[in-house]
């Protein structure tokens, strides 16, 4: 049944890299702050870097809760459920950081992914605890395909349109914390 693992071993790596969706939970420090839970897992946007590190490409979208909470306190839990094959649930508790598309090391991190359309950041998680549980209650589901909507939607906006969208939607979390406020204001002379 449930087990705590020393690290992400080859079996766990194979399992989590095969999942088409995973879930990311973060929270602000404020006692009355809103806890966030986001689905992720667009094909090709997740990778296991090593036994203690995972990363994914964070696509421009209507919210930026994960970024806001990581920038405030770093706490994060990532969960993978087996919707096919043997039952399993894997949780990775750790500390995450945001590598913004404006950061010097973005290109190096982004090189791990093939499709960068709409990317605003790479989220890098240092995993402090690896555990699994039985997954006996997880339903069996068939993956019918990707919707292929988010990245084309962002691609149609172009780089400037994505920056406009982020300035409008991503600057703060729903609690008002700084989120993705990296895009230079249109009046700024040049990106930092
Ligand atoms: C099934 C599913 C998979 C998703 N996969 C991703 C993904 O791989 N990367 C991503 O940035 N957003 C993905 N999204 C959108 C996110 O759930 C979310 O809206 C967006 O990333 C903002 O998340 P945040 O508020 O946690 O920062 C996905 C949404 C769904 C419904």
UniProtKB/TrEMBL annotation:
Stretches of the chain forming a coiled coil according to its record: none
Region Disordered, residue ranges: 171-192
Residue ranges occupied by any Pyridoxamine 5'-phosphate oxidase N-terminal domain in the UniProt entry: 8-133
UniProt xrefs under InterPro entries: Pyridox_Oxase_N (IPR011576), Split_barrel_FMN-bd (IPR012349)
Pfam families in the record: PNPOx_N (PF01243)
Superkingdom in the source lineage: Bacteria
Protein name per the record: Pyridoxamine 5'-phosphate oxidase
Species assigned in the record: Isoptericola jiangsuensis
